[in-house]
Amino acid sequence: MTDGMLVQLVQGNGSFGKYSCVIIDEAHERTIPTDLLLALLKRALPLFPDLKVVIMSATPNVDIFLNYFGQGSHLPLSGREHPVEIRYLQEATPDYASLALHTAQHIHQTTGDGDILVFMPSTAEIEDACGQLRSATWGLEVLPLYSHLPKAEQQRASKVCMTCHGPEESVQSRLGWHRSGRSQHR
Q: What GO molecular function annotations does the UniProt record carry, in alphabetical order (predicted)?
């Protein structure tokens, strides 16, 4: 679940009592829901001593979080960085869906490697775009990817994923993403 969803749930029932562990990813991004969740957790930890909190952050300054909570330990993890190429359109297009699908087809036909992440504004448009791309492209597994999709279906996503804004909120990305499309909020 996202940090915003957990904030709403905890504010609704006022308790972290039913949770044994809370993991906060990308804490360095300092979003309002993340900061609220950190504040709620700090207040809740004395009341729920068995509650574990894991904070993941790309910031080298982990002391910010250690000092804020007054306890804890730092477990540094190293990983491989993978090159990411981001290209932007020179101007907006009203037919973003067709352009995103055309771009995904082009990447598949010209590179043949890596996964492709296509952003769509809603689950309905994700499902529609998946159907269109499946019909138009041979040899490419096209899978939807959004937070309320069953976990097994999320884990199947491997080659082209249609997603709403912020897939990092609910799923782990794989190696070698190509991004196509744009996220639109309504």
A: ATP binding; helicase activity; hydrolase activity; RNA binding
